[in-house]
Amino acid sequence: MAWFLPSWGALAVLRRNFLVWRKLLLPSLLGNFVDPLLYLLALGYGLGHFVGRMEGMPYITFIASGIVASSAMNTATFEGLYSAYTRMAVQNTYLSILATPLQMGDIVTGELLWCALKGAISALAIIIVASFFGAIDWHWQVLLALPVILLTGLSFGAIALAFTALSRSYDFFMYYFTLAVTPMFLFCGVFYPLHTLPAFAQNIAAVLPLTHAVLLLRPLLTGHAPTQVALHLAVLLAYALSAYVLATVLLRRRLLR
């Protein structure tokens, strides 16, 4: 079972992905800043003009904190799907890595660390942009939000990587976005409080990882103390660990059969 457990070799995989991404650093960072700017202008100011305040805060603040969580989800998901599939099935990078002393656990762990880091970069860009608009104030709780953002990226990166291990083409990813990512983006509290949903929808949202990321990050980014911290962290961690196990097993079965 040595192949299952990660070693320090995972950091080599992380470094390899970073060096490749560094070549596209400027356009990538530009996209991280432009996307949240458009959201904040269109929804925070445009729709916020009609909404006013929500849960005791300006709507632009409410939505900015939610978009931080959804951005970590989207960025980690894209990295765990499209980029990981390219490395796995197109460039055969994983097979090349397995020809070295590194094991499958190193590959999966390195990929998940990279997904979490990319998600954190995207989320931090939104925090910076939102602070310019006064939607998020810099205070000590923002520092506590960073580990939550990284855990969110790990969770969604692991889920995406498990899905990638089953995919036969890029087109297959549309099922995941349509059936999982988009519903979470719309119904997990990013744009409005969960209590406004029907009871059955609230029950469904309660088991989805983005809900717990939002419930942790929104208070931290608005200067409040989150509630049920242990529960939210446990759910995110459970998704990350279970998806890690599944992704490792499926990738090994696919690459070494």
Automatic annotation (TrEMBL):
Q: How does it sit in the membrane?
A: Multi-pass membrane protein
Q: Which GO terms describe its molecular function?
A: ABC-type transporter activity
Show the PROSITE patterns listed in the entry.
ABC_TM2
Kindly give the InterPro entries that the UniProt entry links to this protein: ABC2_TM, ABC2_TM_bact-type, ABC_2_transport, ABC_transptNodJ, Nod_factor_ABC_transporter
* Entry keyword set: Cell inner membrane, Cell membrane, Membrane, Nodulation, Transmembrane, Transmembrane helix, Transport
Q: Which residues form the ABC transmembrane type-2 domain?
A: 27-254
Q: Among its keywords, does the record have Cell cycle?
A: no
Subcellular locations according to the entry:
Cell inner membrane
Q: What are its GO cellular component terms?
A: ATP-binding cassette (ABC) transporter complex
GO terms (BP aspect):
oligosaccharide transport
Q: Which residues cross the membrane?
A: 24-47, 59-78, 112-136, 142-166, 173-194, 229-251
- List the Pfam families: ABC2_membrane
Note the subunit structure: The complex is composed of two ATP-binding proteins (NodI) and two transmembrane proteins (NodJ).
Q: What family is this protein classified in?
A: Belongs to the ABC-2 integral membrane protein family. Lipooligosaccharide exporter (TC 3.A.1.102) subfamily.
Task performed by this protein: Part of the ABC transporter complex NodIJ involved in the export of the nodulation factors (Nod factors), the bacterial signal molecules that induce symbiosis and subsequent nodulation induction. Nod factors are LCO (lipo-chitin oligosaccharide), a modified beta-1,4-linked N-acetylglucosamine oligosaccharide. This subunit encodes the transporter.
Name under which the protein is recorded: Transport permease protein
Q: Native species of this protein?
A: Igneacidithiobacillus copahuensis
